[in-house]
Amino acid sequence: MSNPYKRPDRFTKKAKAEGYAARSVYKLDEVQRRFRLFRPGQRVVDLGCFPGSWSRYLIQQVGKNGTVVGVDIEEPDLDGGTWIHRSVYEVTSEELRTALGGSADVVVSDMAPRTTGNRLFDHVQQIELADRALLLATELLEPGGSFVVKVFEGEDAKDYTDRVKAHFDKLKRVRPEAVRKNSREFFAVATGFRG
Ligand SMILES: C[S@@+](CC[C@H](N)C(=O)[O-])C[C@H]1O[C@@H](n2cnc3c(N)ncnc32)[C@H](O)[C@@H]1O
Predict the structure, then answer these.
(1) Among candidate residues 31, 95, 85, 91, the one with its CA nearest the CA of residue 57
(2) pLDDT, tens digit only, all 195 positions of the chain
(3) Number of helices followed by number of strands (H, E) in the chain
(4) Half-sphere exposure of 148 toward its Cβ, with a 13 Å CA cutoff?
(5) Count of CB atoms within 10 A of residue 128's CB?
(6) Do 58 and 33 touch, CB atoms closer than 8 A?
(7) What kind of architecture, by CATH, is found in domain 10-193?
(8) Which one of 50, 54, 56, 180 would you pick to mutate in the ligand 1 pocket, going by the greatest count of ligand atoms within 8 A of its CB?
C-alpha cells in the first residue's frame, strides 16, 4: 500500500508555496476562519510548536504588538517569537507568564508523541500531553480566553473533552479538512475560559 505521508497533497503543496514549515498550518487556519480566536496584540502560547508553521501563522495574526511563546523539545528556526526548548512537562506556567509578559489570551497545543503504531499506547501518551496542555492553559489564561488542543480519538477522548469543558463556556470538536483521512486526531476548541 502506498504511504499517504509521502504523497504531496494539496495542503503540502500549498504549505511549500506559502513558505510554511508544515501542512498542519491549514488546520489552524480553518479553526481561525471558523472561530476568529486570534487578534492583533494578543499573547498566545503554542505548545508543541516545532517545526513552526502554527507559530509563524500566529506571529502574523497577533502582529507586532502581540507575543507568541512556543514550547517544544525541538527548536523552530523562526524569528518573531520566544522559543522554550524543553519538554512541556518541565516548563512551568510562571516561566511562560514571564516570557509572555502577562497571562495568555489563547493557548494552542498541536502536541503529539512520536507514534509507535500501537493505537492504545499512542492514544494514552497523547492524552497525557493534552492534559498537560490543559493544566498549563488553566494556569495561564485570562478569563474569557480560548484553548485549542489536538486530541487523538480513543477511549479516553470523551473524558478528556469533558475535563476541558468543565473550565470553559463552550467546547466544539473540529476535524479540519487538512487532517489526513487515516488520522484519528481532532481538535477541541474551547472558548470562554471561566477562570
Ligand atoms: C504535529 S507536531 C507540531 C507541528 C506544529 N504545530 C507546526 O505546525 O509546525 C507535534 C510536536 O509535539 C512535540 N512534542 C511531543 N512531545 C512533547 C513534549 N513532551 N514537550 C513539548 N513538545 C512535545 C513534538 O516535538 C512535535 O514537534
Answers:
(1) 31
(2) 446 556 789 999 999 999 999 999 999 999 999 999 999 999 999 999 999 999 999 999 999 999 999 999 999 999 999 999 999 999 999 999 999 999 999 999 999 999 999 999 999 999 999 999 999 999 999 999 999 999 999 999 999 999 999 999 999 999 999 999 999 999 999 999 999
(3) 6, 7
(4) 25
(5) 16
(6) no
(7) 3-Layer(aba) Sandwich (3.40)
(8) 50
Pairing of strands 104-109, 185-193: unpaired
Q: Hey, what's the cell of 99? A: 516570557
Domain ranges of the chain: 10-193
pLDDT, position 3: 61
Distance (Å, whole) CA 105 – CA 137? 10
Ligand 1 pocket, 91 CB below 6 A? no
Could you tell which of 55, 91, 110, 152 is best to mutate to test the pocket of ligand 1, judged by most ligand atoms within 8 Å of the CB?
110
What is the residue whose three cell numbers read 523552530? Answer: 76
- Whether 150 sits among the annotated catalytic residues: the reply is yes
Catalytic residue among 6, 27, 64, 150: 150
Those residues whose C-beta lies under 8 Å from the C-beta of residue 190, and which sit 6 or more positions away, are 146, 147, 148, 149, 164, 165, 167, 168, 170, 171
